[in-house]
Structure formats: structure tokens, C-alpha cells
Amino acid sequence: MKETDKKIGFLINPVAGLGGRAGMKGSDDAARCRKALLAGYEKSAFCRAEECLKELKGLSMDGWRIYAPEGCMGADVLFKVGIPCEPLENSRIGSLDEETSREDTLYFARRLCGMGMDLILFCGGDGTARDICEAAGSNVPVLGVPAGVKMYSACFATTPCKAGEILKRFIQGKETSFSHREVMDLDENSLDELAVSPTLYGFLTVPDDKVRLQRAKEAGTSEEEEAEVLAAEIRAEMKEDTLYILGPGSTTYRVKQMLHGTGTVRGVDLAKNGRILRADADERTILSFLDREQKAEIIVTCIGGNGFLFGRGNQQISPLVLKKVGKSHIRLAVTREKLSGLGTRPMLVDTGDLETDRYLAGYYKIRLNAKEEIIYRVQAGADALLS
Description:
Helix content is 30%, strand content 22%. The chain is of the alpha/beta class.
């Protein structure tokens, strides 16, 4: 190794995304994460990181060094994929079963910054991005591998493999310009308040790849009346004796408000015959209902700005759930304002299973109001070329 070698730092938040299928809406609460693990839900960040790093297979790393915390916060997955790295020792962190905290993320991020990294690749969600922003500011280029639950920030690639493509291009010298991208997050204690919007926490310096980076979530503006009309249309068309899986979001919440019972703003709720049967359902609850229901439909909206339909904040509607319900029984509740914010870009899916993502791709009808309906394209995030 040479003194002139360039340096890449890599770290993982091992519990990022754990709260998704468990219906927790985030993974910042350590006690709730422990509860999810005891219930049998598995950590997914390791697999998301592996998916990203596989893009580097066969690439010459001559002139580059990769540094990562030993154990579950980085080095383990690099060694598994076959990428050499220099582990950073820390006695507190060990195997995949070890519990980590944001203090560990801050410690290693600051340590990597102090070592003069040319780029830090991190795998996590919005909470992890906030920690990286606190540790690195905008002084060190970074890139986020999407592995959290919500991921409203613009420092993430659209999928793990797209993050790998950006990193590969960076190593090859094809990514040479950078831009400041928003770090946004929601307070997990206020997730079921309709008026709460993501807070801007700062900016990170990210390779300026508009094709492979996701956009930040846009705050809702003047769509309230339109959303009310759309929700009323959807409610009027809901069929008897059909289980409805209602995704998170302000538009779908308005549908929930028209039913008997109390629904959630950012949870996945189950309804039938005009009544909320289960609020804040996790993946297992949804699957258990599907096992005893003959007819089911999914009603979801996309995230304003970045256009994600599945895989951001609604991981309870998992690949298993989606395949059980079927593509033809998915209804999109999307306002004209959200569509205009996408321009001509497709809506995206990133469920963590590429086969499911490609199964969901295609053209969907979207009812805008009683008289107007359009056809809109949905694409697997891994296949999307955005502009």
C-alpha cells in the first residue's frame, strides 16, 4: 500500500430498517428494536450493504484503501463479499448479534473523517444520515446506501445497487463533481400527527449523480381539497367483504378517517366493510389476515418528490404480501400535485427483492377524480434511469 492511495470509509448501522416490516416506522428506539428482534424480525442492513458492494466485484482497487469498523458495523460484510479492507478496532463492537448505538456511528464517522477519507459510504436510514451529518458536516464527500425505513433524505441512492454503481464510478474517476444534498428526518415520537413534516437537519456533500440519487421528500402544500375529493372517491368505491390494506400517508389517512375506528397517519392499517380491523399492522399480522380472507386490495400513495411507492415507510407491505394480493389489486391514491412534482419520472419500487420490484413494474391506472383517470408508469428502482 502506498501513501498516495486514496481512502474510502465504510460503515453500517446494523439495526437500520429493522422497524420496517415490524411496523415501527423507524429504528431509532433501541428498546423497540430489541422487541422486534425477540419477535423474530431480522436485521436487513447487512443484506442491503452486500447488494451495494457486489457492484464492485471484479473492479481493480489498485490505488485505493477501504477502512471500516471491525465486525458488524462494516468489515464483516466487506470480507463476505471478498473486498479487502483495513478494520478499525473497537472493543465495544463485535458480531452481528452485538447491539450498537448512534454513539458508535458518531464515533466511527468522526474517526474516518479524521483519517482524511476521500469518500464515506454509509448504510442506514435518515437517522444514520443525521449522525453522519453531525460528524462530517459537508466537509467530506459521502454516499448513502438506502437501508432504513422512511429515507426522506436526498443523500441516498435510489437502491443499494445504484449506490454501488455510483461508488464504482467514483473509484474509476467518472464521478468527479459533487453537490450538497438535503438530510431530512421525522421525529419518531410525532409520526402519527398529520401536520408533521420532515425537518431539514443539514446538507451532505454527495457525488452529483442525478441519474442514481433519489430526491428528498417534498412537504405537502396546497393539495388538501384535492386529497379530500380523491379520498371520498376511493371510499365510495371500496367493496364489501374485501380486506383493504391501507398504506401510510396523508391521502390514505383521509380514507381511513371515513371509516369506523381509528387509523394511523404513517402506519399500515387493515379495513373491511367500512371498519378499521387493525391499526398499525406489521407484516405478520397482514399475512395472517390474508390467510383467511378471499379478497384483498392494497391502497397506497407515493412519496412526494422522490416518487417511491413501495420500500419507503411501508415495508410491512412486503414482497410476500404483494405477491399474495397480486399486482392487479393495487390501487394508487395519488394527487395531481404529487404527479406534477414527479415531472415525467416514473414512480419507483424498492422492496428489497428485485424479482418483486420487476413484477410490480408496469403501467397503472390512477383516478384523479370522478371524471378523470390517467395511466402512469411504475419502475423497479434498480432499473430506473432518472433525470
